[in-house]
Design a protein that fits this description.
Chain lengths: 174, 527
């Protein structure tokens, strides 16, 4: 136990200060988002991630959002196990036809108001896989999509910006 | 040079009156090609089994007139491809499954994709095919268009006949395809009594996105990109295997510097995945400390990959003929520096993991896979190596640059989750040594040979050792340097079935950690 505590103390906090993106700086966007999440989602945004046919590259980077460097929870964003608990669906992959029904059902099981973000080149436009006998291509070919985060895979930072911006662009509640 | 066992094996086939003919196949070398009569297909497998061969893979091909079935075997590091032709009108073959358990799903995949029926296969159910295409349609036949004839909406896969268990107190737990985490989709059906798992049945194929079909008609570069997306976490290993196959088919000599750089990337990929998985395995038994520590190390590792190779996963860095970019002194210096500090950190973390009683309690004896079962399924990689199977392509059938390196392969006998963690922990340190040596002796010269398209009909076979284990890639070129057939076999085909076995008699709450310790790729398996 001492060794564990020692290690924790030596490493300290590695969470990075928010890097600058376009004006206003992410720091500022972060504050706005936090306020927005406070206002619209009672302080916490619950995301249900759905892999609808990805190569798993996108998932690995979404995982990274929870590593100590990005620590996305500090903005009140957390990942949940059920669509019924979710405010947002983060969907990856060219939607494989075998996942089509499951994706529709997940979408239907998510309570309104809900946001859908298509992730990666595959989610955006079918990517390397396109549309075929086995693949529906873009997520928007199957369910309505509110925002897209490009990249193959998008880096954790791209993902953070995308999620935060999608929330930031929501119309005010009142 | 023909391996000793092969000569004797061929003699044995002759005495058994099994017609098998060795054919020249330059692109498949060092693997040997045997053509076998369709009637003898099953007996051939029977003899291979008696000869203690390992069943590696099976894939089909549509040659126009006939359908072709291939099966690959290995013994003592020598690979053998057996090939047979069947008539389109009556595509029926004896099955290999009665002799090799590993052939079960691959043969069902072939049945779904080519319409080759395997008589005496013990399981007639479809596998890759759910309901995206009709029972009478076979996507990998040449007359099936890649666009297919999809319905406006694909119906759910709700008419699959799962196995049932009867008895008082037996209940069933269906899980997926959408799982309760950030993970790929698939379906698991448990039968349990109380907390104990009686049986697990996997139903995969949810992320089938037609990789084999959409490969057709691509050029070499396009195939390398696609191969890099067979399984995102193995992008380097799959792209390398596919490029190796194409280079052999085209007769292209890859410069030694490029080969060394490929190996550095492959080892970096192994380390990244093991770091992430060790943390995740600990997290599945609620040891969050390790999750955060290993997650942190994986992140800094990926950042250096990006600095040196331009991508956090090194996607699209391996191209036909070589690699995309060179490594300069500064980049190799920062890589070396990082390994020194990481090694120190890992020593500390391994010590913590090693003597934590609560971790030991959860990981030791959990998800036990006996050496016999592992062998019966042909398990490889960390799953096989934790159960006493040492096979590693880098060491046992070495390809350049590994043929000039000494590769340490950790092997354990316990076969439990703890052993699978130990293999990974040691493999990280072994990879550090390999990377250090590769950087030190990085050969001078160019990093890419000019690509020249292969002649129509040329075929090639590539093998690499991915972080999960052996990866195979088969390629045949058609007209104008376009791909006519691509088949990648991820290690997951061999390790997924072992999960069904090793979970038995464990408690349901231990499923996540058992699953993570195997970490099969869904995408690499479903294709
Ligand atoms: S966008 Fe790229 S990383 Fe993401 S699923 Fe598609 S191929 Fe994989």
């Amino acid at each position: 136990m001492l060794r564990i505590l020692g290690k924790i103390q030596r490493i300290g906090i590695v969470t990075e200060p928010l890097p600058k993106i376009d004006e206003p700086a992410l720091e500022e966007v972060g504050a706005q988002i936090k306020a927005k999440i406070g206002e619209m989602f009672s302080g916490s945004l619950a995301i249900r991630q759905v892999d609808a046919g990805s190569c798993n590259g996108c998932e690995l980077e979404i995982h990274a959002l929870n590593n100590p460097y990005y620590g996305i929870e500090r903005f009140g964003v957390h990942f949940v196990a059920s669509p019924r608990h979710a405010d947002m669906l983060l969907v990856t992959g060219p939607v494989s036809r075998h996942m089509e029904a499951a994706l529709r059902r997940t979408y239907d099981a998510t309570p309104e108001p809900k946001l859908v973000i298509a992730v990666g080149e595959c989610g955006a436009n079918g990517g390397e896989f396109g549309v075929s006998y086995a693949s529906c291509g873009a997520v928007s070919n199957v369910i309505p999509v509110d925002a897209v985060i490009r990249g193959c895979p998008p880096t954790p930072l791209d993902l953070m910006r995308g999620i935060l911006q999608a929330v930031g662009e929501l119309p005010a509640l009142k | 040079m023909t391996a000793d066992w092969l000569t004797a094996f061929l003699g044995r086939l002759t005495t058994r009156e099994i017609q098998a003919q060795e054919e020249p196949a330059a692109g498949l070398a060092p693997a040997h090609l045997l053509t076998v009569q369709a009637d003898d297909w099953g007996q051939f497998a029977h003899e291979a089994k008696n000869w203690d061969c390992r069943w590696v893979a099976a894939w089909g091909e549509d040659s126009g007139d006939d359908l072709i079935a291939n099966a690959c075997f290995e013994k003592d590091g020598t690979y053998l491809v057996a090939r047979t032709h069947v008539k389109r009108a009556t595509p029926i073959l004896p099955s290999h499954t009665p002799y090799f358990l590993a052939a079960d799903r691959p043969e069902r995949h072939m049945q779904d994709m080519f319409g080759i029926a395997f008589m005496d296969h013990p399981d007639p159910r479809r596998w890759t095919r759910h309901r995206a295409w009709k029972e009478s349609e076979y996507p990998l036949r040449k007359n099936f268009p890649a666009a297919g004839n999809p319905l406006a909406q694909t119906p759910p896969n709700d008419n699959y006949r799962f196995l049932f268990a009867h008895g008082s107190g037996v209940y069933e737990i269906p899980v997926g395809p959408v799982h309760a985490g950030i993970i790929e989709p698939g379906h698991f059906r448990f039968q349990a009594v109380g907390e104990t798992v009686l049986n697990l049945e996997e139903r995969l194929g949810y992320v089938h996105k037609g990789i084999e079909k959409i490969a057709e008609g691509r050029d070499a570069k396009g195939l390398a990109r696609l191969a890099g997306r067979v399984s995102g976490d193995s992008t380097v290993a799959h792209a390398w295997a596919a490029c190796m196959a194409m280079e052999k088919a085209a007769g292209i000599e890859v410069p030694p510097r490029a080969l060394a750089l490929r190996a550095i990337m492959a080892e970096r990929e192994r380390v990244a995945n093991h770091l992430g998985d060790i943390g995740a395995i600990c997290n599945d038994v609620s040891f969050a400390f390790a999750f955060y520590q290993f997650g942190r190390l994986r992140e800094v590792w990926q950042r250096v990959s990006r600095e040196t190779f331009g991508h956090r996963f090194m996607m699209d860095r391996i191209v036909p003929g070589g690699v995309l970019s060179d490594l300069d002194d500064q980049a190799s210096g920062s890589m070396q520096k990082q390994m020194v500090s990481l090694k120190k950190e890992l020593d500390g973390l391994y010590n913590i993991i090693d003597d934590l009683p609560s971790l030991e309690d959860r990981l030791d004896t959990t998800g036990h896979l006996s050496p016999e079962t592992a062998k019966a399924f042909g398990a490889l990689g960390y799953v096989g190596r934790a159960s006493g199977i040492p096979y590693d392509v880098r060491k046992d059938a070495p390809y350049a640059p590994y043929d000039r390196l000494s590769v340490e392969v950790p092997v354990f006998q316990d076969g439990d989750v703890a052993a699978r963690v130990k293999v990974r922990a040691e493999e990280i340190l072994a990879s550090f040594k390999l990377i250090e040596t590769l950087i030190e002796y990085l050969p001078p010269g160019s990093v890419r040979a000019d690509w020249k398209p292969a002649p129509a009909g040329a075929e090639g076979l590539g093998f690499t050792e991915g972080f999960r284990g052996e990866i195979l890639a088969y390629v045949r070129f058609g007209e104008n340097g376009q791909i006519a057939r691509y088949f990648p076999r991820d290690t997951s085909w061999l390790t997924w079935p072992t999960l069904e076995k090793l979970i038995r008699d464990n408690i349901v709450p231990d499923f996540p950690v058992c699953n993570k310790s195997v970490n099969g790729s869904y995408s690499g398996h479903d294709l």
